[in-house]
Amino acid sequence: MQEKLILRGIAKTKNVFQDKFATACTKNYVIFFITALLTVFPCHHALASMAEHQAVLDLVPLNAVDREVVQSGSWSNAATWSGGELPKSGENLYVPEGKSLSVDVVSDLSLGNVRVDGIMKFATNKNIKIKLDTLIVTQTGTFEIGSEKARVPSSKKIEIIIAQHGSIDRAWDPTNISRGVILQGKTRIYGSEKSAYQLISTDPAVGSTQIQLASVPTGWITGDIIAITATKFRAKKATDTSHQTEDELRRIKSISGTTITLGSVSNSNVLDPLDYSHVPVIENMPIYAANLTRNVVFSGEGGDLIPANQRGHFVVMHTPDVVIKGAGFYHLGRTDKSKPLDDFKLDSAGYRITDASGKYVPDSNTNSRGRYAVHFHHTGVDIDIPPVICSGNAVFSSPGWGFVNHTSNVIMENNASYNVYGSHYVTEDGNELGAFKHNIAIKSEGGKVGEKVRAYNHDGGHTGHGFWLESRNMIVEDNIVSGVNRAGLIYFQRIYIKGIDSQIPEENLLTADKGILKGLPKIGSAHIPITHDKNSTVLSSGAALTVIKANSNQQHDARNIIESLKGYSVLSGVDISYSEKYTLKDLELVADSSTSPKYTGFNISSKVSDTVILNGKINGFVHPIVTGTTTAGTTTNGVFVNVLVNERPLNPNTDIHQPIQKIVSNYDPDFHQSMNSLPNNPDELDFIPSADMSYDFPQFVKPGFLISGTKTDSLGKTNFTSRWYDGSLRAIAKKGYYTHPDGSKFVILADLISDRATGETKTFNTRLNIIYKYDFSFMGPHLGQLPD
């Protein structure tokens, strides 16, 4: 149901966002904006958004406008413009509310800034090119390129180039937000449709001049740039100044059905054989070709020759009324993940420094956060408002992040991303909604320090990843990653700064198991179970999957389920730390036999408990499985069902190792269980408490209440504990109480148990008796009598 709720939005005929604000739009502009923000965001976020909005407006105040649209019309018509003249180089332009500008020119003029309070739309029957410093579409504005029914035809190209004007004037732009495209109003972009990627059906050898696709792609034409995924991982060494993967770029010299002849990137007419072998050294390893060319282009003038701090960026701010399809974003992004952010002063440990009032002390902000290649910034996480749609787009070469969902609800599907330094696809704060489906990420250099470094300043995603996921509440399905320095996918949940709303309301949860809330209206983002991660494939990378949390206490029994994860030619397989209750189904991890060293296949050595692999293959690693200790200091417990190591059944004595470089067994039969298959007639999911299920409500609520006993599931019997904390106990009590036949009072705790292998859940109830001598003035109404 929740998945349908997220995905239904674009089908609505009228945007809820517009409905709420239609009346306000006819009134004072400031009143409109404040009303809009308070409708979509909590108060403190609305205030921050207002400050951001004002910083954008300050870039192009009306008294700084050189030329404006005086009557709706075409750019090429002088009568459209004030003074009866066409825009000139360096001028600031303005499209007022109530006016419409149709862009129909090919121009190399380097304009200043363009502010749109009205409508800016582009002709689609001809080639278009404009160049400017900053394009701003305000809340009342509309930005249109094509439509769903009339996309820009593949024979035409629309270019918006972010001009290279040198260093940004920080006196004019103190927040460093200019130099790019800033969209705060209704946005519709429809380039021609293209398949993001295709499976290659034959194995291209070194020197090949053709590749054969498994099926005919949509929209691929001569001249398109494609990337071919690598079959070997080339680790970035400490002495390397850059990371050279074996992923390769070529242009399409010609295409006929499923056959592509490869041309040079600089000249598609020149035949260009492959430099590397793309014949897999691993059986069943797939090879893909991704198309990186789009005919609606947002690009940075000068490309990669321009310093990162002078590049443009593309951001959608504060509006969910956005559809972007078939666009390319080239050489964009000013946030440089190769070095730390400097927006706030930090102490020697990396924590932000605060002043006497508790506010963070600002720094020079020369390497700003939030200036990404494609950034959906605070468009809202109201589940009743339709999501942003980002589909069929491409990012090419960015020094920071590629596609970013930041406190927004975004459906990202069928996108391609190439050569992004930090992370290709990102959820930034942990409260994000939406989906990543059928995307591809190729090549991410990343830094040499670990993922946890710089976390105190909320400066993550810098070590080279396909997907950097601070939100666990996402649909992540059918994605491909190749040639990244670290993990193809990483779930990272550590928040050390103020101002991030990490409490997720019940209505926003993907999981159907609302019992994880334990009576509360919200749950912390780090405690949400992963339930929709399926069919990810990671190729020729540092690792397949990494999970890092602040602590392993999940506070409920729902399983984190990862299905059909494949890691081929990876240095390491899966690394889970500070976590519990993970089930990995149909897992396949294969090291590259030609690469040395080959580290760990499945690592659960750092404060991890209750992990299951159900049907797995772990091949070619020095350490197939590594276990360590839990937070409580006990040995990491794991159950391995139908797991093969190097194509033979798992041998716990020889395949489970200690977390050291030497090969030393860590097998402990009290904590590690290996099974060839699940029982044919597994026991029914059940819980038996260690004592009578009738307890006294604790006199002192703050320490909470612990339920313990034995859980039975398809894997057998295991110890089970559930702690109910102060907030949950009070929330349950406030909803009301029941009475026994003798008139004594009690409340009911509905607890969740989960099958470790299948993820099936069940609820059992615990009664807490109310002792009259305690003060329970916070108790709710009487809900009725129940039998003993």
Mean pLDDT: 91
Shape descriptor reads globular
Q: Total number of β-strand segments?
A: 57
* Order of strands in the sheet with most strands: 27-29-32-35-40-43-41-38-33-30
Secondary structural class: mainly beta
Contiguous uncertain segments of 5+ residues: 1-40
- Strand percentage: 35-45%
Alpha plus pi helix count: 6
What is the rounded Rg?
A: 28 Å
Proportion of residues in helical segments: under 10%
**Biggest beta sheet summary:** 10 strands, parallel, barrel
The end-to-end distance, rounded to whole angstroms, is 36 Å
How does this structure look, described?
This protein is mainly beta and 788 residues long. The chain contains six helices and 57 strands. The strands form five sheets. It has a ten-stranded parallel β-barrel. A six-stranded antiparallel beta sheet has the order 14-19-16-17-18-15, with no helix packed on it. A hairpin with a 6-residue loop joins strand 55 and strand 56 (761-769). Helix 2 (16-25) packs antiparallel against helix 3 (29-40) and helix 3 (29-40) crosses helix 4. The radius of gyration is 28 Å and the shape is globular. The model is unreliable at 1-40 (pLDDT under 50).
Outline of the structure:
The chain is built from six helices and 57 strands. With 788 residues, the chain is mainly beta. Strand 52 and strand 53 form a beta hairpin.
Q: Main attributes?
A:
788 residues; mainly beta; 6 helices; 38% strand; disordered N terminus
